[in-house]
Write a structure and sequence with these properties.
Number of helices: 12
Strand content: 15-25%
C-alpha cells in the first residue's frame, strides 16, 4: 500500500439537465479527478466538482503542495496522511483550495483502502447495508414558480417523500412566500418540503420571511445567512419554528464548532469537498455527541457510505447530476438509496469521459 503515483485529470462534461440556480451559469460539469496508485497496483479515485472555477489552481495545489507529502507513504493510514497534509499546509490553508485538494486525495485514499481490502467503505467502517432516505433536490429558483412545482411533482411521482426548493436571490419576499405556499398546495401535506436560501438573506430577513413560511410546515430552512454569520444562524434558529440547517460551505469540524456548542442547528450538511471522508466522519462524531444529525451536501454516491456507518444519519441529497458519468450509477429507488457492495466507494467514471470531454476554460 505504499503510494507510488498520484495523477489528476480535468474534465468538462455536459449536464443532462443544466441546473438553473438563478445566480450561477452551469452548462458543464467541471471535474477534477484524482487517482492514487499504490506499489501493488491498487488505484483509488476521488473527485471534486467545485462549481465556481479554480480547477487549474486546485490541480496545481495537489501536485505542488500535497503530492510530495504522500509519495512513498502508506496509503492505509489515511487519518495520519490527512494530518500530514493539514499540518504542512496550515499557513496557506485551513479552508479553501488546500482543503478541497486534500479532500479529493482523501476520498481516493479511502477508496484505495477499500479496494485493497475488497470491502465497501460502509463495511470497512462497521456500517449497515440498509436503504437510506433521499430527498429530491433541484427545484431550482431559475425554473420559476411553475417550473419548481413541476420538478417537485416529478420527484414525487418517482417515489420521493421529500423535495427541496429554493428562495431568495431572484424573488421578492412575497414571491418566495407565494412559491412555498403553492408548492405545499400542489404536493399536499404528506411530502416534506425543504427550503434553501443559499445564504441569500440577512438574519432579520430570514426571521421575517421564515415566520411566514412556518405556516406551510416546511421541513427546514437551509443556509438562511452567510456561512460565517454564526450569530445570525442562532438568531434565526431562535426566531422561527422551522429547523434551521446548514454546513455545506463550512470547512472541517473546526469551522462547525459554534454549531456543536449551541446545539441550535439540528441537522448539519457537511460537503465532502470540504473535508473528505476523514473529516466527514469526524464531523459526524462531534455532531452525534452534540445531539445533531448529518445530511451531507450533494454527492450521494459517495456520502451514502458515511450515512450507512454513523449513528446519526439524516437525509441524502439527490440531484441526478452525475448519473450519466458512472459505469454503474447508484440510483434512488422509491426515495431510498442503498450503499453499494463494491469495494471502496464503488464508483468508477466511464473510461470514455477522459478522452471525449477534456476540460476547457
Amino acid at each position: 500500500m505504499i503510494i507510488s503515483d498520484i495523477r489528476t485529470h480535468l474534465l468538462s462534461v455536459p449536464f443532462v439537465d443544466p441546473p438553473k440556480t438563478g445566480f450561477l451559469a452551469l452548462e458543464k460539469i467541471d471535474l477534477l479527478v484524482v487517482e492514487v496508485e499504490t506499489a501493488s497496483g491498487v488505484v483509488g479515485t476521488g473527485h471534486l466538482h467545485p462549481l465556481a472555477g479554480g480547477m487549474r489552481t486546485l490541480e496545481m495545489c495537489i501536485h505542488e503542495m500535497l503530492k510530495p507529502l504522500l509519495i512513498g507513504q502508506d496509503a492505509g493510514d489515511v487519518e495520519a496522511l490527512w494530518q500530514r497534509m493539514w499540518q504542512a499546509t496550515f499557513i496557506q490553508g485551513r479552508m479553501g483550495i488546500t482543503v478541497m485538494a486534500m479532500s479529493a486525495l482523501d476520498i481516493a485514499l479511502w477508496d484505495a483502502v477499500g479496494r485493497a481490502e475488497n470491502k465497501p467503505l460502509w463495511r470497512l467502517w462497521g456500517g449497515r447495508p440498509e436503504r437510506l432516505p433521499v430527498y429530491g433536490s433541484g427545484c431550482f429558483r431559475g425554473l420559476g414558480h411553475d417550473g419548481m412545482i413541476e420538478k417537485a411533482e416529478r420527484f414525487v411521482a418517482q417515489g420521493f417523500s421529500a423535495i427541496k426548493m429554493q428562495v431568495a436571490h431572484v424573488f421578492t419576499h412575497d414571491e418566495d412566500v407565494a412559491n412555498v405556499r403553492d408548492m405545499r398546495a400542489a404536493l399536499g401535506d404528506s411530502i416534506e418540503i425543504m427550503v434553501d436560501v443559499n445564504q441569500g438573506w440577512s438574519a432579520d430577513e430570514a426571521i421575517a420571511v421564515g415566520r411566514r413560511l412556518d405556516e406551510f410546515g416546511i421541513a427546514w430552512l437551509e443556509e438562511p445567512v452567510m456561512a460565517d454569520d454564526f450569530d445570525g444562524y442562532h438568531k434565526v434558529a431562535n426566531g422561527i419554528r422551522a429547523p434551521v440547517v446548514g454546513g455545506e460551505n463550512h470547512f472541517t469540524h473546526h469551522d462547525l464548532k459554534p454549531f456543536f456548542a449551541s446545539g441550535k442547528i439540528p441537522i448539519l450538511q457537511p460537503d465532502i469537498m470540504r473535508g473528505g471522508y476523514t473529516e466527514l466522519r469526524v464531523i459526524a462524531d462531534h455532531a452525534d455527541r452534540a445531539g445533531l444529525k448529518i445530511a451531507p451536501h450533494m454527492f450521494p454516491e459517495l456520502s451514502v457510505h458515511l450515512n450507512a456507518s454513523i449513528p446519526n444519519p439524516s437525509w441524502l441529497e439527490y440531484m441526478g447530476w452525475y448519473d450519466h458519468l458512472w459505469v454503474e450509477p447508484n440510483l434512488p429507488d422509491n426515495g431510498m438509496m442503498a450503499p453499494p457492495d463494491r469495494p471502496g466507494h464503488g464508483m468508477d467514471f466511464k473510461p470514455e469521459l477522459f478522452n471525449d470531454h477534456p476540460y476547457r476554460d
